[in-house]
Specification:
Strands 7-8-9-10-11-1-2-3-4-5-6-12 form a twelve-stranded mixed beta sheet. Helix 1 packs across helix 2. It is globular. The chain contains two helices and twelve strands; from the N terminus they run H-E-E-E-E-E-E-H-E-E-E-E-E-E. By secondary structure, it is of the alpha+beta class.
């Protein structure tokens, strides 16, 4: 169980960093980045358009987000995964996110759900990953995008993603289409349709593969409020933000509970203090969901 817990929190921490870079690459007036470098869409992990390294002040809200992925295999087997996330952000830009997973990774067979809580506090310059089952809070530094200590690694990654996107647009592999503006759950959202074509032979495919994403982004809240991703390799993921309330959340939501033990670094820090956990997450996983680490 310990190894499984470490695996889950490591994967979610890594997805958080990937989601941050992806959202930063999008931003207001920019459209989504290339698909993530592993199988599960970012929406499935509950990170669509949240915690993008940019502190958003004066736009408090609370909401629930649900992502459902359905995949039908060639033999007719149906795979269904659900992620439910709860968001809170206050007027100072502090945020809290609770992600509940089911049908994911090594826990899929058990039928149980597992929850991870993340708190980002730009006022204190810290972020926390809470492990409710163990009552542990893992603390890592937070630096605002563009700040003094602010993320040279993620800035470089963002630049590479933008360059990659521009090259794919120039080659015709990626096409973008505006869907206009519409009100979704009480907020105005700008829609974009992105079609990415994977040419025949690029990943061993004998025919071109098309991945289509429709994304509705709220410039006011600076989050994605609705999206649909259709990928013949991984199925269809529908992501929707619901129960959106524009009130100031309770301040206690952004503090670590008194009965939690606070530990420095992510779950991947080893005894010499060197490793990905020092920076809040693992290196990006490769194509396909990663397997749990061997026993320790």
């Amino acid at each position: 169980m310990m190894n499984r817990n470490k695996w889950m929190y490591a994967v979610l921490s890594g997805a958080l960093l990937l989601g941050a870079s992806a959202a930063r690459a999008q931003g207001p007036g920019r459209e989504g980045p290339p698909p993530p470098p592993f199988g599960a869409p970012m929406e499935l992990l509950g990170f669509e358009g949240a915690h993008n390294g940019q502190v958003v002040k004066g736009a408090p809200f609370s909401a629930t987000a649900i992502a459902e992925t359905t995949q039908t295999l060639q033999d007719g087997t149906l795979i269904h995964r659900t992620t439910q996330s709860t968001f809170h952000r206050d007027g100072q830009g502090r945020s809290r996110k609770e992600v509940t997973l089911s049908g994911f990774g090594p826990f899929a067979a058990s039928g149980k759900t597992h929850t991870l809580v993340m708190i980002v506090d730009p006022v204190a310059g810290s972020r926390y990953s809470l492990e409710p089952e163990r009552k542990v809070a893992r603390q890592t530094p937070f630096a605002e995008r563009g700040g003094k200590h602010g993320g040279a690694d993620t800035d470089a990654f963002e630049q590479k993603m933008q360059a990659h996107m521009q090259a794919e647009e120039a080659s015709g592999a990626v096409k973008k289409e505006s869907l206009g503006t519409q009100a979704i759950n009480g907020v105005n959202a700008e829609g974009t349709k992105i079609t990415r074509t994977i040419p025949a032979g690029q990943i061993g495919n004998d025919k071109p593969i098309q991945v289509v994403v429709e994304r509705w982004y709220s410039p006011d809240l600076q989050i994605v409020v609705k999206s649909t991703r259709t990928d013949p390799r991984f199925g269809t993921t529908a992501y929707t933000v619901t129960n959106l309330q524009r009130a100031e959340p309770a301040a206690t939501l952004f503090t670590v509970p008194a009965d939690y033990a606070v530990k420095q670094g992510g779950p991947g820090v080893h005894k010499h203090g060197q490793g990905w956990g020092q920076h809040g997450g693992p290196p990006p996983p490769t194509e396909g969901a990663p397997a749990p680490p061997p026993g320790e």
